[in-house]
Amino acid sequence: MFFVSMGGAIQAQASDDANDLIKSCVEAVNVFDKKGEGKFLVALSTSLEEALRAGYCRGVIIEYRRQERGNCERSSWLVQARNIALQPINEPQSKSIDSLLRNACD
User: Is a pLDDT exceeding 50 seen at residue 4?
Assistant: First the structure.
């Protein structure tokens, strides 16, 4: 019985991690879409929290690509971030970071 509840906790954590990546990629896309407004304005309108979330998304994607998993070389990390950002948050089916990254390459 302990293992069953432990497995549920691990699955819930994986789903939370995937949702955190989605939220972070939404921030990354927003920050880089603002970039067209000028670097000075982006610096003024981006909070530290937004910048950290965007950096988390970019870092996870770049590390995934560095390890040469998936077929991501055809597009930039920002394209992959946009694909992840389009995913629904808190979807009832379980998601993992790996599946989000893999599916965002297609």
Answer: no
